[in-house]
Amino acid sequence: MANKCFVRQKDEVDDVIEKYADTIYRICLVMLRNIEDAEDAVQDVFIKYMQYEKPFNEEEHKKAWLITVAVNHCKNVLRNRSIRDKINLTIFEKNYITKITDEEKQDGKAVMDALFLLDEKYRSVMYLFYVEGYGIKEIAKMLGKGISAIKMRLKKGRLMLLEKYLCEDERE
Amino acid sequence: MEDKIKELKLKEAANNIRLSPEKIENIKKAVNEKGRKNIVSKRTLPKRRYVIASAFALCLMLFLIIDMCIYKVLGSSATGIIIQKFTDKSITEAYDEESAEYISSKRQIIGDIITGEYFQCKIVDAVYDDVFDRLIYSVNITGIDKEYAECEGYLDSGNMERNRFFLKLKNKSGNIEVFFVGGGRGGRMEYDEIENSLCVYVKQNPGDENCFIGLKKWAGSDITAQYDIKLDIFDKIESLKVSYEGTDITITPFALGIGRTYDYHEINEIEISYKNGYVSRPILYGYFNDLEYESLHAKENSPNPGDVIYFNEVRDIKDITMIRVNGKILYKR
Q: Which member of A88, A105, B50, B169 has the greatest number of CB atoms within 10 A?
């Protein structure tokens, strides 16, 4: 029986938050397309980490665990949403962006908007593959899907991302 | 394709999105607060619930055990009452044969609605009258002449096989009681405005056509006999004859009617003509001699003199233009 009393030390949790908060936030943001929900999700993921008693063998294992928990948590949030979320293409701008040039900002917004416009199942796969750099096998494991499904989603995701990006570009 | 995606610099764009240092601090704070609070509630609540539920179950078991012991030893006690309620045999003992019959009859008849042309009569309750061995029914009657305040019916359960139904009416001013004798459960009643009479049509058996009619003028005093009831309807008829096996039998006026009493042995055929040209030939249904009743066809049985014979044909007397029995005209107007 699991020990319900287990809580990780504050310092340990703070270190992990410091290290992975941005990554988890981005995943949540990509999946939920809402800044407030993403921030809440980040909190919940780290609370789960705090109460997760099993040790992690290596740092990469810990990161993968956090991403998996974040993905599952976001799926639950999406499932419980009573109204289908409206796509707000100011998500990118409203975020805290590190110091970049205006041109970089423009390019960044265009590609992120294109990503936000994809369906959730493509958004998460594209993000994990291209941003976090995970392989197909690892993504399949994290999302609990088959390798062929991930491959298919990547293939379609690429096409759709380009299509959306070009559409957004032409519109601008 | 892959190159084109790389050109989009998705990774760079995404990595530019970060949480501000203030937000990271807030998250740290919130996680530490909420995470520890959740642990406390998770750790304690199930334990508390378990303890409370266990204590409650234990108390209940102890109470029942003590209760059983006290009841076994003393027979009754303050706590023993609960058990007594479940073990008291007097409830089942009350269902003796008679009561069972009563309940069965009650179930059959309560709720029956006897619908007439001018009023409706609903049997709402039944009480077993052990003195006269019968069931007294309470009847709600609506639409009837308002001078009648009370109405009740009863089934003679001593003669269940005959299933006779009696209806008693009381008026507001006096004690006029009218008893109508029916041939079975169900049926209908009608108030005849022209004749100022109440007609009771009762089915002999469920599913039968109406086979019996009783008629009585309101103004009359207590009348219980059927032939008296019928008398009032036919008081305008002077004389009638019925042909019986070649012999003419004179029937007194009161003896003719639809569902009337015939004071003779047998009628071979009866024909009734109506104003609208309709001619009916009712079949003799049966006879009645005080205590016995059985279904019979006139041609197959030989009732005794004095028997009452019913017809299964019922029509409003005012519409009848002619009655012919065994080919002979008995009544014409």
A: B169
- Non-local (6+) Cβ contacts of A55 within 8 A are none
Of B247, B319, B235, the residue nearest B276 (C-alpha): B319
pLDDT, position A12 = 85
What residue has token string 């007594």? Answer: B84
- For B179, the 3-state DSSP assignment is strand
Considering CB atoms only, which of B2, B5, B31 is closest to A47? B31
Chain-chain contact of B23 with A39 (C-beta, under 8 angstroms): yes
Q: Check CB contact under 8 Å for A131 and B32.
A: no
Torsion on CA atoms B270, B276, B277, B278, rounded to nearest 10: -50
Q: Would you say B39 and A55 are in contact if contact means Cβ atoms under 8 Å apart?
A: no
Residue B271 near residue B280, CB atoms below 8 Å: yes
Cβ atoms of B153 and B123 within 8 Å: the answer is: yes
Show the 3-state SS of B203-261. ECCCCCCEEEEEEEECCCCCECCHHHHHHHHCCCCCCEEEEECCEEEEECHHHCCCCCC
3-state secondary structure of B171: strand
- B42: contact with A, CB 8 A cutoff: yes
Give the closest residue to A41 by CA, choosing from A8, A85, A75, A13: A75
User: Which residues of chain A have a CB within 8 Å of the CB of B23?
Assistant: 39, 96
Q: Would you state the torsion angle of the CA atoms of residues A33, A39, A43, A45, taken in this order, to the nearest 10 degrees?
A: 20
Is the pTM here over 0.80, yes or no?
no
d(CA B89, CA B84): 9
Structure tokens at A148: 């062929």
| pLDDT tens for each residue of A80-126 | 775 556 666 677 667 766 667 777 777 777 888 888 888 888 888 88
A120 contact partners, CB below 8 Å, separation of at least 6: A31, A78
Rounded to two decimals, the ipTM of the complex is 0.82
| Cβ separation A13–B28 shorter than 8 A | yes
